[in-house]
Give the backbone structure.
Amino acid sequence: MKAVMIGAGNVATNLVRALATAGVEVVQVYSRTLPHARELAATVGACASDSLDGVVRDADIYIISVSDDAIAGVVEAVPDNGAVWVHTSGSTSVTVFAGRRERYGVFYPMQSFSKQIAADFADVPFFIEAESEATAVMVEGLARQLSRRVFRATSDQRRRLHIAAVFACNFANHMWTLAGDVLGEAGLPFDVMLPLISTTVDKLKLLPPAESQTGPAVRHDVNVMHSHIAMLDEEKAAIYKILSDSIIKRHEQN
Amino acid sequence: MKAVMIGAGNVATNLVRALATAGVEVVQVYSRTLPHARELAATVGACASDSLDGVVRDADIYIISVSDDAIAGVVEAVPDNGAVWVHTSGSTSVTVFAGRRERYGVFYPMQSFSKQIAADFADVPFFIEAESEATAVMVEGLARQLSRRVFRATSDQRRRLHIAAVFACNFANHMWTLAGDVLGEAGLPFDVMLPLISTTVDKLKLLPPAESQTGPAVRHDVNVMHSHIAMLDEEKAAIYKILSDSIIKRHEQN
């Protein structure tokens, strides 16, 4: 199978490496910045292009891995050639291809990639969507060459995945920022919290998070909650209250 | 050094094991439930007691590792013997000993312990407080036999540590519960999120959390935030808003 990668960023870099390792022939890498295209292409013996007009026509699959707002531009700039075209975005609908491609889909690996660290794709969940069952099977097969965890997901499901990731990663990370503020006020370094955070995360592999919830809210320890709120600034106090209320409500229901 | 452990719960069980391994002679384990005292005492060849009157008088240090609301009762029930008395609680003030002991302090290992899994204490942060510098040095020395990370912390600092742990662990865990709800509505299992959560946590070891914050709020991506809020129930929408606002505010300041 011959593949063309449109893009040379974090996702593209990791995918190109992994596809080549899995035996897929990556024949070309496009980037609007030629040195980026060349650098990535060189890692797998592909050719490089910084012109969408120069994208080869005879590959089996074209993987668009550019920023969300640049996907439609790529689809418009290159005429259809009957091959399968996919994008790798979690938040762009599959309909970005509608009317402009015959065979198209989504090939979304849900992970945070960086160029510096080669991702191990084996456990990265892939979410697949396509315009037809035949295309879905083809794209799914490609994903299975990289990962054990391949799912079909509609664009609506991908939107919900993104929301879940905002809670699970972006908001959890902000909780650590706020914890760091409180520690800083006490003259303590953030890293004193790392062992306890690791233990909390390790439990996720054993139990659903609701079942391992601990702390004053789930214990209904009103004295402790009040004493904590009294020590916080207005913003953190409001967050402490709304999250404690949510925990209390959630665990009353169970 | 001879130690007596008052308590046979999760913290006591892990401490007794670790102290014995470090060469401290644990001479007695007390629990109000005799089989619990016997079970733990047997692991290190100590004697067991279910009577506070039966606690031996000639140890060098007495470690009270019972529930927070039982600490004062233990202190009152046993007369002072001039040895060092400490408790292991993150949220009880050192003043619980005031007027009832000459030499006393706090010996708080900040980790979530379970009887089933033997904790590795090497990286567990210990927080030490005492009535005098001499006692602090003695208790600190004991902690250093178990861990590389020993801090002095006042009772006020320990209260702030506890608040930080509520944010970093209890609230982060609740974010995962809410993410699981959203995934469940999309028909997807929670564990699709584990690789992304692991990556987010791994970054904490490299960068302060504020510096690795990602997501629509830190990008000021108002369209994505509005579309997410529109898909959430009232409770999750309110949490999404307050946390996004907090992220925006935080990153404007920086």
Notes: Chain B touches chain A through 79 residues (CB under 8 Å).
